[in-house]
UniProtKB/TrEMBL annotation, chains A, B, C, D, E, F:
Superkingdom of origin organism: Bacteria
Gene3D superfamilies reported in the protein's UniProt record: Hypothetical protein af1432 (1.10.3210.10)
Organism for this UniProt entry: Mesobacillus maritimus
Upper classification of the organism: Bacteria, Bacillati, Bacillota, Bacilli, Bacillales
Cell division recorded as keyword: no
Entry protein name: HD domain-containing protein
Name of a matching Pfam family: HD
Domain HD positions: 167-295
Keyword Hydrolase carried by entry: yes
Keywords assigned by UniProt, alphabetized: Hydrolase
CDD domains per UniProt: HDc
SUPFAM superfamilies: HD-domain/PDEase-like
Length: 328, 328, 328, 328, 328, 328
């Protein structure tokens, strides 16, 4: 009997069910016959499929591409085999899902916590920012952009590229920061840490498209990068506040210090990773290091998720990784 | 008879005349006696001086420092000797110059062209910017800041650290760019080049103090760097224009492209020299290369000015330099 | 109706006409059937073609390779399709062009100016070299080698790899240099610049084969590189002059200074790009920077020629490149 | 009246009291007269002193060096002046403190928590190691070496070079690790983290002398480094356990995995900072990042402790640092 | 008539004979039909083969993989063609060789000298170690592990990856070292050189599997690397000796010095090639340089073995290589 | 009684005897009194001296500098003290040695073998070059330049900076090469190795002054470097031979191959150490590695010569070095 949930598909099974299209590529065999390489998904599970031209049902490639496009929900039948250790499916039949036939939210990978609880928790961190101008700017920017911010992915490819990834990544950093502030006491300025971490990647809502299936860099993102974009947002807020009330030189200074922390959160300029200024405060150094921890934990967890225990594999950007066997 | 103009002072002479104080340091002999190391100058000529405590005339170091401070004009008598191939002077007597006694402009190094002619020529380049929104932003920023801009130094230490250095450097780049635009025709966009070059270092009026004798990085300069500062100026202008009229997406795009050229005028991020985005257009690559040419010509001319013909010396940041003998 | 000029070929057309063979590779399908990958061209336009074995007409691969060889002129019929955004043609019929049937010069990419005018202009720069021994050496080497020099490509793959590319590149540098010499006055020595730039890449006539279709590094080129080769040419000239007249130490020195400028025109040794000595004069630094400007303008123009306006692509050696939309 | 506690000494005061000798250097004036540069301290406060030869009291330098030696307690009288912004003292009279006259513990800088409480807390972390062989090895090594371990410095110069610094640094990492384990759940293996962090720097008890005043690298430390030294300790324990009972291959594997985490806690080999193997598990990457956080917080806190608010200074290994003004 | 010895196989021949399987990969054609890529060998000669599914003889891929597995001896018939300048064979028929039918030693590449003579010569070097504790440790480790050591490969891929490669590489280094010791006299300590070179790669018997056909890194190898593994072996010997007799501090020191030489034989830490300590003696620097010489000679000899005279090829890790024509 | 041989001078002695002046520097005390820092030597022993102005005997500094100049032989009396672990002498009286009073050869450091024997041995290697054109060029260049070559230093500062150092270094490389050729048989071409090694540093006779006391880079040396200089010598020989007889293409090729080996003997271009072409033969790689071995042995031997056994010191370019205690 055919498997109906993509999460359960293994080699040798046939499949009948819904799935979400993540990526479509036209290819040709060496003989010149067209076929499609299609990646379909349910949540985190991705399956590579082939639609050979004997399965086109007489349609042209152009017609097929109106069905097989990023983000469309399909009903497929096919047969799964195994290739290089991965499930692969040959598509036999296909149609677009009809409206209301299936709930798309069950097919999209999302942050493991609810948008509502994440939003509340981030707001609680913002509430602890004791420097008034930092509190005002952070709070206003968060409220202005929270709709996009709470659902946006945090990356094109690497870590946190899922719905709500940006908010979840931001929240994870705030939690680590809280513990470090608790542990090191006055050595670390809690208000600056919370303001900087809440805002540090907010420029990504403009740097990348909000598409959850296949986000891309925008033109503006490539002109300026997310760091300069968020610094622009902060500057516009500062200009706005100055229109309403007088702002002391100490206040301007602390806002520029905030922009420095954000400017340098990719580390020193010499590493060439895209900081736009050198880190010159403890908080600036800390933001970079905390960002690194969350990114690495997520990349490594993701990379080892499908590995066998005891296996070693080479992973791009991380070198070799070993997945230990359980021993406890 | 004593030399009265610092430009003519050589070892063995005595000196009586005016000079400008560039730098003052308190020192102590090994025995603990205080003395002052003072650098005085007329135009480009700098002379290292010593004021031993037998020349203090009973004054305390604190009293002396009110006389010997950066930028003050002094009347000195002293005797010049030679040390490690350089003139060095022991100060015997000193007093502050009185108001009107001497024209300070004769003692400050300035750009080799007049402020008026440089300002007119830069404005003529701005007039050739054919993309209206780039013309408006560049023109307004130039007019807003021209007072500071036309007299500012361009660097703390290296090339162009003289009065008007920023304007002179900017103008030199515009002239090279004009010739390259003439030579390569449509391959290079003249409007973008002129806008970007006029603005590329304008952030330095905030990054560095306007002091012509001993400029320093400001706190804001160290928080953001001159690239982010000028991008902020451009963004505020864009916001202002939007308040007055509707701005098309093509116009916004070209303004962001301008910010990208400026963001990347220190070269690719991987060199770690402080670009805040990658260069992604020909104009961005060109700005970096033209900036480099003018900087190198000025640094090498300066470094070899005092060398003997036929001599080789090691110069910081440039390696060994050879000053050729005349042969033509 | 079939397209007859390769410059006009687009996907979906059939083609009947002449073209020049640039590259031929034997391949096999997974089933083991042989076929040919052939690149044909007219001027700058290159089209990738496939000749399947059902189009071999009974000939063996060896027989086919006497027809499909680098530089041969063919008459082809075929059908163009589109693959990964590029035109691709399946060859149906083919024959060698007969003598006189077609003018090969219409199929080869050449410098955009005539050989005669370029030669005259380079000679006019040589005439401005005021240091007699530099003038003599540069002039004699140019006259000795002008036949090869005027038609040679300047590179195996990158910029200026077309007929006359070496002369055109050399001339472009001389023009930039002229403007910089005009602008910076005595700071730059015009005679040394013109001598060095005329000769800087002349070693390439030995480093690379003179083939305009597919130039390759020669064995001697790989043993020594074009810098050491041209320095050898200069040295042989110097030895020759010494056989005819006495040469002063100042003259020898300036010839070695010339060799230093050429030796270092790939920049400092530390970049590992093949300079054979450190740059130690302003002219040496300038040669490197001017060479860079011309190379980058040509590489970027070439890379963006086929891009859509508004598009961003990753280009080897240049990173991402953006082709702006017209706005003026 | 003279100041009697070194912690209160400021320029202009005279001093009479006890202090600890940290460093002694013989010097000569240019005239050839010998004198001593002596650094004395109480807790974290260090004062540079000079003993001129008119203060030698007829003793030879050799005799003086028996009094002024690292770690000796002296009673001094002298006068403090100010030099380059720092207190400096000229010593007038001196004698060795007599037994029982002063409590040396009041003069040595120590970790800010008691040895007893730190030892108990580290032990509580060890108790949470749930993999028996890791628990046994970690626990035994800690008990074997706790005497040295609890009092040892953690560095020759940089962060944590004070009595108990090694234990305090170890404990700080364990605390950060605890919070990260709590936050990320099963993604991180708590047992391996606690075992690795407890042991990661234990090799320093052999790599550096236990001297609290001026620790130095030992010969063995320079032959192998602290990573190989602690791996040797772990291996000897493993050999010992094998003599007592049979050890499964899974157990050996997890011990080698522990050695890998420790081997790579300085980051990837390519950074050249002394890791002895590549990190291949999440725990290995995490150890490196957590170690970095604690080290940076301590280095920056130390470096900014004596800076003025609002000041920027260049600090070796950290670049420029800014000490913010209070604003909250 | 068919070729029966793989060493003589050239394109166009058919083949009937024995060969050793070195590598097997399952593949699929674009149509989805399975086939096998098999590499077979005799001595140093490797031939890439294809077994299409029309040659499967009705067997499944799983069944085929029991025949085609690393290290199995097969009797094959097939036809050789030429592809990209290399021999390639299509397999028609195949069977496993029967016991005794063929001598596997004639199919495995081995060191060019006999195991017996190499073992005797290495032992003669060990006999010249005049420092007793180094002699004892080296001699015992050699005798303990000589069975594995004498037959082990020295590398997974690069130089010396053949049976006995580890012993042959070790012996080559000892021979170079002997000559350098003879030439430089007392400057170099012969005993330390011989001990360090004999042991330097002994950890590879644990770092890599002993398989001569397709060696792989072991898990332990990836946890610690061969340097830490052999240092562990040395340390265990030292512990053992201490159980039997008292060992002087001078003896312990020289053993640690030996471990330092081995720890640093991949060069300085900054190159990131896996040394586990900095070289701090002449012998440590020499070991690294001698190791390099033997490795390079072998890699280059291997890389040029199949090149034509006069040819230039790019070789991974070595750049371009030229194979000279004979001229003598 | 005073010591009369500088080799025996230790702190506390007075001295009366001859010595050679290696370096002279004018200095001033902080009070402005002039004095001289003079380095004197006998063989490898160097002693730093001070001549205070109370020892000037009424002469001016200019008069003193005619006596104290590089390379002059003096008769001195003085008193030795100890400063920072090194002997230091205050000069009381001095005079120039008279002609014939002392044999300067006893004061200059020279190669440890006689010029005659080294010359004969180098010639015997040249005799083994079996490729006629390489033999002719090497032999002629050696005979042309042997006078300078046999006595020249090999370096300005580092290894082999003594009389005959160039010949001794060359000979050492030839000896190592002989053994490697013997060991590796046909893999290495003996003729090319001997020709390349004999000539590899011959350009230094022009790159550096022949002064044995304080050699310096010449102007020509800095324009081209010793590699391009010797390649020029070889090319001039090749041109000369062509005037006398016809030279085959194979012969030209092998001469260029020789120039490639020399061009690349500082290693790959990417290290930035001054190779002028990439190494593309085994012999080219070997020359670099053998050169490295001899250089390192000499630098380390020199650096550790004055160290105590058991001591560790940091040495420029080598990192830390340990001088082992004797144990055998």
């Amino acid at each position: 009997m055919a498997v109906t949930c993509l999460l359960e598909l293994t080699p040798g099974n046939s499949f009948e069910g819904f799935c979400l299209v993540k990526e479509v590529k036209q290819e040709k065999t060496k003989k010149g016959d067209p076929y499609l390489n299609v990646t379909v998904a349910k949540k985190h599970k991705m399956v590579a499929c082939k639609l050979w031209n004997n399965g086109f049902g007489g349609r042209t490639v152009e017609e097929l591409l109106t069905v097989f496009s990023n983000g469309s929900m399909l009903y497929l039948t096919g047969v799964a085999s195994e290739y290089n250790g991965q499930v692969q499916m040959t598509i036999n039949e296909f149609r677009l899902a009809e409206n209301g036939e299936v709930d798309v939210r069950e097919y999209i990978e999302s942050a493991p916590e609810s948008v509502e609880s994440m939003e509340a928790e981030i707001r609680s961190y913002i509430d602890e920012i004791k420097i008034p101008i930092l509190h005002q700017i952070t709070s206003e920017l968060f409220e202005d952009h929270k709709k996009l911010f709470m659902h946006h992915v945090a990356a094109v490819k690497m870590h946190h590229n899922f719905r709500g990834g940006l908010a979840y990544h931001t929240l994870s950093l705030l939690r680590i920061a809280k513990n470090i502030c608790d542990q090191y006491g006055e050595a670390v300025n809690r208000s600056k840490m919370y303001a900087a971490l809440t805002l540090h990647d907010m420029g990504k809502i403009i740097e990348m498209t909000k598409d959850f299936t296949a986000p891309e860099y925008t033109l503006f993102g490539q002109f300026l990068g997310h760091i300069q974009i968020v610094n622009q947002m902060i500057d516009r807020k500062l200009v706005g506040i100055r229109h309403e009330r007088s702002v002391s030189i100490e206040e301007v200074t602390v806002v520029y210090e905030l922009m420095n922390i954000i400017s340098s959160h990719h580390g020193p300029l010499s590493n060439g990773w895209g900081s736009t200024a050198e880190p010159i405060t403890l908080e600036a150094h800390l933001c970079h290091m905390i960002d690194n921890i969350d990114a690495k934990i997520n990349m490594i967890s993701k990379a080892t998720a499908d590995m066998q225990e005891g296996e070693i594999q080479k992973v791009w950007g991380l070198g070799k990784l070993y997945k230990p066997r359980e021993i406890e």
